[in-house]
Design goal:
Blueprint (H helix, E strand, L loop, with lengths): L7 E5 L3 E9 L4 E10 L5 E2 L6 E2 L2 H15 L4 E6 L5 E6 L7 H12 L10 E10 L2 E9 H13 L3 E7 H10 L8 E7 L3 E8 L2 E9 L6 H16 L4 E7 L5 H11 L3 E3 L6 E3 L8 H9 L4
Helix pairs in contact: 1-3, 4-7, 5-6
Length: 296
């Protein structure tokens, strides 16, 4: 566990909240405690990019019950679905020296691709390369994130990190993999959405989260993604593919292997944690992401 964070992680979704307490094991993380709470369907409402938090009183009630049942803690890392936070790899003409100027340039770039005024977004970024100038930008609706943080604060808990789940599953995977310069592909598959990412060595080349609307099967979406990546990124030689998610079918895993002509590693919680709860099968991916908070 390389990064030093308090042990409590909350994995938040529109219909559930999972509290995870992570401890240090002899080699890997230990899931000391994991408890899931159902959320009322009127707490979050669909929104552009990020859902809106519309029933604050009901959410506050869940947080009060959570604190009562899980003991004393006052800091938390929060993970949210990848679709709540847009991840864009942006090529710039240059990377300004001042962070404020870089943010302004990124917001201007997002105007062309985002269906929302960029001034309404909370933005963070990581400089990937300066030659050519490339940044990985994270953006989400400020009003929603601020409301979540405010309600946790009112419950006596300071939010110190708010990131997408998929990124932290990847952190958990790569902290255990040998260094490489070759291409690797990562899929994080959920019931109604999936994330695809391509890494060349440690550098991300492509990240996209898409909704599954029922018009095409997941296998068809994977085939379309493979065609696009081969054509646009020349990803003709893949070292490994990684698949994370709860209840991912064997046919999906097989389809990924066929489309990318590469070995496929199916990620389980046991791959990243030496102690896991006995009833964790329904949210293995979320617990895997919780361990990734400490390894990025």
């Amino acid at each position: 566990m390389a990064r030093s964070f308090p042990p409590d992680v909350v994995v938040l979704d529109r219909d559930s909240l999972i509290h995870v307490r992570v401890g240090r094991g002899r080699k890997d993380a230990k899931i000391v405690q994991a408890k899931s709470y159902a959320l009322r369907d009127d707490i979050f409402a669909p929104g552009v990019v990020t859902p809106s938090l519309q029933n604050e009183a009901a959410f506050a009630d869940v947080l009060r019950r959570l604190k009562l049942e899980t003991g004393r803690w006052d800091k938390v890392s929060i993970l949210v679905p990848d679709s709540w936070i847009r991840m864009n790899i942006i090529e710039l003409q240059s990377v300004p020296e001042r962070a404020s100027e870089t943010e302004e340039v990124i917001r201007w770039s997002l105007r062309r691709t985002m269906p929302i005024d960029p001034s309404l977004l909370r933005l963070s970024y990581e400089v990937l390369t300066r030659t050519p100038p490339r940044v990985l930008a994270f953006s989400a609706v400020e009003a929603t994130l601020a409301a979540i943080e405010r309600l946790f604060s009112a419950a006596g808990v300071e939010v110190i990190l708010l990131e997408p789940c998929g990124l932290n599953i990847w952190n958990a995977i790569t902290s255990r993999e040998a260094l490489t310069t070759r291409d690797r592909i990562f899929f994080y598959i959920r019931e109604n959405e999936f994330t695809t990412a391509v890494f060349r060595g440690p550098q991300p080349l492509f990240i996209r989260s898409r909704n599954l609307d029922g018009e095409r099967s997941l296998e068809q979406e994977i085939k379309l993604s493979a065609t696009y990546l081969r054509d646009s990124l020349q990803t003709s030689s893949i070292e490994n593919c990684y698949v994370a998610g709860n209840d991912v079918s064997g046919s999906v895993v097989d389809a990924i292997g066929v489309e990318f002509s590469a070995p496929v590693k199916r990620i389980t919680l046991r791959d990243v944690a030496e102690q896991v709860p006995g009833d964790s099968s329904q949210y293995e991916a979320e617990l895997t992401a919780a361990t990734g908070v400490f390894t990025g």
